[in-house]
């Protein structure tokens, strides 16, 4: 079956990742795009600036991929579900856990698929790491997730607004890997959240995790101020071995120093293959574990003020 899909929000992630993934999957046909800025790909037969108009005037749509900032995602997803469309939710799937729980409820009532996409989970190295860790006791976890916000989010102000997640916009990718591969549930025990004086979202975070096990060293360091090479690493030591290192966002895996997996990331094609399966089976898939960890970090975290951040060094915002 070929599913007719629309994209709501045609920004960088939709252009760079969703569009190529849809183009490469013969079981999806891009039928419509809604973009407030009027950006559209050539193959979309219908284009709109208002997603509500799209939902009303293109009744043949089977599903929509929602690629907007998280602050507005709940309302859009709710409207799409109530219009009888299946929904694919870019990460993070909503601004709050309550919003995501509401989408779970509406999805069930409407008998439509709601799918939370944690793209970093769709690397083979992540699956191999999960299988390797199964049944083992983790003694050490170190997440190092450092990148340059000016490179990845140039001029995007929504990420600095309340509900924009700040450094957890990329950091939630690491947490989605952690929640998938760890053999037991992980909790936030302590968090220092570094807020620029002129922003409402953190630019860095130092996290202490817990699994309830004594003497385990479980930490995470997230920073949006790194220039040069970017760092997306997760290191794990188990009692009695082995030692694992996931790097390059999960596309590279070493076990005890030996390279086990190294592949080009195929995250978004994997997401759409999964969505196809869920649509075939009419089965929703809502994973809230990564979002819960972010929410917990904000709940118990200590706010640490740091110097103002400007999109262009030396210029006022």
UniProtKB/TrEMBL annotation:
InterPro entries hit by this protein: Gfo/Idh/MocA-like_OxRdtase_N (IPR000683), Gfo/Idh/MocA_oxidrdct_glycsds (IPR050463), NAD(P)-bd_dom_sf (IPR036291)
Domain of life here? Bacteria
Q: Which residues cross the membrane?
A: none
Signal peptide positions (record): none
Q: Where is the Gfo/Idh/MocA-like oxidoreductase N-terminal domain?
A: 4-112
- An annotated Gene Ontology molecular function: nucleotide binding
Name of the protein? Gfo/Idh/MocA family oxidoreductase
Recall the taxonomic lineage recorded for the source organism. Bacteria, Pseudomonadati, Pseudomonadota, Alphaproteobacteria, Hyphomicrobiales
């Amino acid at each position: 079956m070929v599913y007719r899909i629309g994209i709501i929000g045609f920004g960088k992630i939709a252009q760079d990742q969703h569009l190529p993934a849809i183009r490469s999957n013969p079981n999806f046909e891009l039928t419509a795009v809604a973009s407030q800025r009027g950006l559209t790909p050539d193959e979309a037969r219908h284009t709109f600036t208002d997603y509500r108009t799209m939902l009303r005037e293109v009744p043949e749509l089977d599903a929509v991929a929602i690629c907007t900032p998280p602050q507005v995602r709940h309302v859009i997803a709710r409207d799409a579900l109530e219009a009888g469309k299946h929904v694919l939710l870019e990460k993070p799937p909503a601004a709050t856990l309550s919003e995501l729980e509401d989408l779970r409820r509406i999805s069930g009532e409407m008998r439509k698929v709601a799918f939370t996409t944690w793209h970093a989970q769709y690397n083979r190295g992540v699956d191999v790491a999960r299988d390797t860790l199964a049944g083992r006791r983790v003694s050490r976890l170190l997440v190092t997730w450092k990148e340059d916000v000016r490179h990845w989010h140039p001029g995007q102000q929504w990420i600095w607004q309340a509900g924009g997640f700040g450094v957890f916009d990329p950091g939630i990718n690491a947490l989605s890997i952690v929640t998938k591969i760890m053999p037991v549930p992980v909790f936030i025990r302590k968090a220092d959240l570094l807020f620029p004086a002129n922003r409402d979202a953190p630019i860095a975070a130092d996290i202490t995790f817990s699994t309830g096990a004594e003497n385990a060293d479980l930490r995470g360091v997230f920073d949006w101020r790194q220039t040069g090479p970017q760092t997306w690493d997760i290191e794990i030591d188990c009692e009695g071995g082995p030692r694992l290192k996931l790097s390059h966002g999960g596309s590279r895996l070493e076990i005890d120093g030996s390279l086990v997996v190294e592949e080009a990331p195929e995250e978004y094609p994997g997401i759409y293959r999964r969505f196809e399966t869920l649509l075939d089976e009419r089965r929703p898939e809502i994973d809230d574990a990564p979002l819960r960890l972010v929410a917990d970090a904000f709940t118990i975290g200590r706010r640490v003020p740091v110097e103002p951040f400007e999109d262009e060094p030396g210029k006022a915002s």
